Amino acid sequence: MNDKVYETDEQIVLLEKKLQRFKTEYHQHEMTNEQTKQLYQKIKEAKQMDCKKQKHSGNIKFVAAAVFAVICIFIILPNTSGTIAHAMEQIPVIGELVKVVTFREYEYETDRSMADIEVPEIKPEAQTGDGALQENLDRTAAEINAEIQSITDSLIKEFESNLENEWGYQDIIVKSEILATTPDYFTLKLICYQGAGSGYQWNYFYTIDLNTGERLKLKDIFKEGADYITPISENIKLQMQEQMDTDEQVYYWLNDEIEEWNFKEITDETSFYLNEKGNVVIGFNEGDVAPMYMGTVEFEIPADVLEGIRK
């Protein structure tokens, strides 16, 4: 493993983000008690060293190296073509209709660039008794998989082009997360992060109606002709204001002096998903409705806000 030296607070924050992401991933894979103890111990040690950094600003490189070492303990990133993990199962059966496997892994590590990309693939389970449902599930899964592969192929192509041209530091992370799996709905989240000096995260949400096998659009959740844009948008504004009133560190473009920046309403194309409770959750990428430091933000719409217009 190459030794890295990180010289800016921004790079340290990036490393801490990676550590948190890896920590979450390992929890999802049911770490043993011993692994959990080791992970928390290393996190504790890293935090202690970070406190020392506040007192001794000259130790930034040391803190960064320590955080990076924690990551290396749990994740090994060899240089690889990304082909060895095709169709390797990542998650066991989700409900009765759908499972998710890792279609491809692409990992790369140098002193200037890092890529950690896992390409998920939705695989419908074989069904009996409902040929139409199975056909729809197969088609929907194929469409979503093609979209995900196109996104990740584009990111890898850009990453490799930057490597060839030796364009500075770069980091790319792509992971996925199952947000909901109920008898009625299945939602997969694709998380993308790209860093080159500054970082940017954006997400994609894929929700499948397991009763029809179709990919859901926002309008599909509501009765024909119902106005769902207004109540959802107004509730989001209310939540934004409440959050800003509660925490001075929170800021949304709601009453900004630059009028065109202000959030006014969602559209049919706004990202969304249905959570385990069946509630609509609206998602925004970094910079969509708030300054970049706010990251990606989500708003769960209470069921009573949409009462009477949901199907």
Quick description:
The protein has helices at residues 9-28, 33-55, 60-74, 131-165, 229-246; strands at 88-89, 98-109, 113-124, 170-181, 185-196, 198-209, 214-215, 272-274, 280-284, 297-300. The chain is an alpha+beta fold. β3 (113-124), α4 (131-165) and β4 (170-181) form a beta-alpha-beta unit.
Describe the structure.
The protein has 311 residues and is an alpha+beta fold. Helix content is 36%, strand content 24%. It contains five helices and ten strands. The chain has helices at residues 9-28, 33-55, 60-74, 131-165, 229-246; strands at 88-89, 98-109, 113-124, 170-181, 185-196, 198-209, 214-215, 272-274, 280-284, 297-300. It has a seven-stranded mixed sheet, covered by helices on one side. α1 runs parallel beside α3 (60-74) and α2 runs antiparallel to α3.
Q: Determine the structural class based on helices, strands and strand pairing.
A: alpha+beta
| Total number of strands | 10
Q: Approximately how much beta-strand content do the residues carry?
A: 15-25%
Shape: flat
* Gyration radius, rounded: 21 Å
Low-confidence stretches: 1-9, 22-33, 46-95
Distance between the termini: 54 Å
Largest sheet: 7 strands, mixed
Strand arrangement across the biggest beta sheet: 1-2-3-4-5-6-7
Helix content: 25-40%
Q: Which whole number gives the mean pLDDT?
A: 78
* SSE pattern: HHHEEEHEEEEHEEE
Figure out the total of helices.
5
